[in-house]
Design brief:
- 2 copies of one chain form a homodimer.
- In chain A, a hairpin with a 5-residue loop joins strand 14 and strand 15 (about 365).
- Helix content of chain A is about 30%, strand content about 25%.
- Chain A has 17 helices and 24 strands.
- The first copy, chain A, is globular.
- In chain A, about 50% of the residues are buried.
- In chain A, the strands form 5 sheets. In chain A, strands 6-9-10-22-21-20-17-11 form an 8-stranded mixed β-sheet, sandwiched between helices.
- Strand 8 (about 190) of chain A pairs antiparallel with strand 23 of chain B.
Amino acid sequence: MRTHFCGLVDEALIGQTVTLCGWADVARDLGGLCFIDLRDHEGIVQIVAEPDAATAGNAEVIAAAAAVGYEDCLRITGVVRARHAVNDKIRTGKVEVVATKIELLNKAEPLPFHAHENPGEDIRLKYRYLDLRTPAMQRKMRTRTRLVSALRHYLDARGFQDIETPILTKATPEGARDFLVPARMHPGEFYALPQSPQLFKQILMMAGFDRYYQIARCFRDEALRADRQLEFTQLDMEFAWVAERDVQDLTEDMIRHVFREVMDVELAAQFPRMTYAEAMRRYGSDKPDLRIALEFVDVAELVKGCEFKVFTDAADDADGRVVALRIPGGASLSRKQIDEYAAHAAKYGAKGVAYVKLDEAGAINSPIAKFFSEDAFKALLEAIGLQNGDIAFFGAGKYKTVSDFMGALRLKAGKDFNLVADGWAPLWVTDFPMFEWDEEEGRYVALHHPFTAPAVDSIEDLRANAKTAVSRGYDMVLNGNEIGGGSIRIHNSAMQSAVFELLGIGAEEAAGKFGFLLDALKYGAPPHGGIAFGIDRIAALMAGSESIRDVIAFPKTTTAQCLMTDAPSPIPDAQLAEVHVQVRPKA
Amino acid sequence: MRTHFCGLVDEALIGQTVTLCGWADVARDLGGLCFIDLRDHEGIVQIVAEPDAATAGNAEVIAAAAAVGYEDCLRITGVVRARHAVNDKIRTGKVEVVATKIELLNKAEPLPFHAHENPGEDIRLKYRYLDLRTPAMQRKMRTRTRLVSALRHYLDARGFQDIETPILTKATPEGARDFLVPARMHPGEFYALPQSPQLFKQILMMAGFDRYYQIARCFRDEALRADRQLEFTQLDMEFAWVAERDVQDLTEDMIRHVFREVMDVELAAQFPRMTYAEAMRRYGSDKPDLRIALEFVDVAELVKGCEFKVFTDAADDADGRVVALRIPGGASLSRKQIDEYAAHAAKYGAKGVAYVKLDEAGAINSPIAKFFSEDAFKALLEAIGLQNGDIAFFGAGKYKTVSDFMGALRLKAGKDFNLVADGWAPLWVTDFPMFEWDEEEGRYVALHHPFTAPAVDSIEDLRANAKTAVSRGYDMVLNGNEIGGGSIRIHNSAMQSAVFELLGIGAEEAAGKFGFLLDALKYGAPPHGGIAFGIDRIAALMAGSESIRDVIAFPKTTTAQCLMTDAPSPIPDAQLAEVHVQVRPKA
């Protein structure tokens, strides 16, 4: 139907006749002379409908052009010529196409919104096809396509097999909530949608596939926090006969490769490596944003002698922490702004934050100075490295809580004071704790998942040191986002049973939920490990989007709806009867 | 953990020390001298544990080897040497590895079955990981991986964008039964799993993506006939601004490409093309297996004068058909075998089949000869081309029914008489009827789907000629399997509404189910079309498997169960309450 793409018409075509298909981005009728900006997925080219130079004819084409409206679907034939008013902003800006034929393929009704008008997200989602037609969204979606394609080509070239795992599978209530699917052929029974292909990919290693990957859809029926989706996509990978560095080295190289291919960016030749303990100590986060140069200073030893009970209690607590965060130039913060920082910290569990300001003249402003001797306070400020014009915030309390809220303050300060460097800051975080004590449930929960191998050799060792045991898990972090997470897995049936037991999953429950895994581990399971990368998040980062919704063609809202198709929706009772369920009466 | 793959150790490595990981395929202890066949995904290599030539030592290694059992997971270091008894069947057959270290990575318990014992499918599916470890299954699964990879590389190089569409979407009760997913955040409402991404891919064309593909999971809750799965995989494609041949020419070239890449097979440079009418007339099938040279002969005109009412009724019926199928060499069929043919035809709607045998001496044996004059019967046999030693079957009745059952006989005869040629016989079938009259429902149903464009220009034309209207649909057929099906779509809202109406879908119902499509068609939808290929079927054909279960890592049984994970399964009522459903009491 066409000879060229609109966005690729250039000077090399001058004098040639081309046929183009696309949408009318803008159409201007200057009375007997019309301009149309014709747009396809490659870009925009200017079409001119004007009287023929020789005959003064061409009335039919001019009339057709004059009738064109926004988003009409057109096929236009014409001759390419050089343009008087060059537009340097677009590739086609040096040419225009003088129309000899204009066909209206499909008339567009008046649009529900126009992209130029900065419409709200709801209307953009309802008319998603109009939103996706915009060059900005086309570019973002294409970034995702290129990312996925680059990943696949990298892995295909290295002997990884792309293997599909089931979407209709068994409910495994560990972790997030499952989506359930009633089974028509088995009254009263249900399939579940997979939260990840975790167990299937481990089974694939036991099945001899050696190197596996899948761009896999995963499902979690969780409260939709800020930027989550019911279904999301991960690059799921697993390797047989490997240790941590085998997985890390290959995937680090892979991520460098895709940034080079898609973004023309060269990431660090070696990603920094940091233990979980170090990340928490320096940045108060297990996914530190290393673009922000701010670091914590632990000051428990320096505050032990002061008279501020909040500090001394925390300093004397084996599980406590007293930490300072210096913000260069932060002395400009007003009392009100400091309160905002305190409020932000409170969201992450702070009961309060102390601070000290050193104004440009070196005068101290701090509600806690009075609790210190002059020398002790001076020593404290020296340890923090406070300069004239700076502020430092203090947090004191339980180690984890202090780290969390001071980590949140670090991010806020980084943003507020333009301390976020340009570029890309990847790193590996390793040596995570094996377990976390869940106060609410009164039991250990797995920090990664229950199939992660502990970094100990014996079951006895693990049982004796469960609280402090470190796992063989690892995360890849980029600009403060966990973009990948994985581990070496347990490949021994007895060790897997012991971990289930420590997590409060009894032998009977384990057999019911994970019996096939425990079985499979008995028939010569090889050592294996893997990782999964969040495709939506990486694509959003590459596209420069705050929200993953920009890189998902048909996303759902935070209330779990598709505004375009109107899903979910009520279903006739007769149809529910076929699958042996009914809607529950309201309690 | 290893330096080489087992299956790739060859003469180039003689004298070198290698470390291998794998499973013990076979282990033989000859008393102080042990052999282990060590297997990984690349193949098998022979390991020898023997006394050291110089020291007569090596007791530890020999003891470790002697303890090895089937499927133990091992790491073995040793020196490659030439082998005395060369095994030409395997790549590693000229070498063996003399072990200097044997590590037992994971002991295998006694196996539930052994691959050499030809186990039943149920036990293979329960212990799928053991089944998949066998070289035969590894080869089949790798064929699928290579197929998918070759398809992707072909399309990525041609500007197709791989775009994901939702799995949690809206129920659309046209066609097969939907899988339903209760929505936790919307009590009483449900998502449905997509039967295909059909509407989403059309929307993507309206959204300006121009060329789309996806290796997409699709879901149909149908009775599991012979070789169906609840979830299956299709290569889903859509093109904007195209006509039929654009889609067909590119995908034909693509299929040629993947057969070249994966199978080293060169398919026909131009696939034969055949209308639906011609395919039914010559082969009684819309997916004829062209490897079988047998063709129908229509004989209505030649039987009009006979006294066999079954023939004359059909011959006089405008919607009737009398057809003969000659089977060379078929005179050898016994009375009992002929009855089996009749029974086979009956499954496809035959009330009976007539036949005529011509024995090697030229004697006629036919229950219907008596209804004909000698001359008329001779003329009939001549028209059929019956030779000595042949049989011909006759079918008479309604056109469609006769075509169906005689088509089934053609396939059976092809198989029984070894008339299926080797190799690959692809073709395009085109010009399908737009509608089929459904006697049961008393309305038209779409032969492809309701979004297929009719091959007419106006709505009036379509309404006036609905019964005979031809669609712009097309199928790619390979060796008697429909491996791909597609069409040019309706891109005009009024035409789409008219087709819905002809299918008995009223304006209100259409707005409820397909409102977003009807809307989208109003805002400048471009002409578009596409196709979908059945990946499971193509992979099975390439792998030489009768069943698609051989090329799906974790398939379900014909009773819709996963025997490995034991899905589906009962769910606690409290969990059902969270999603606002309950199991329905038995009626």
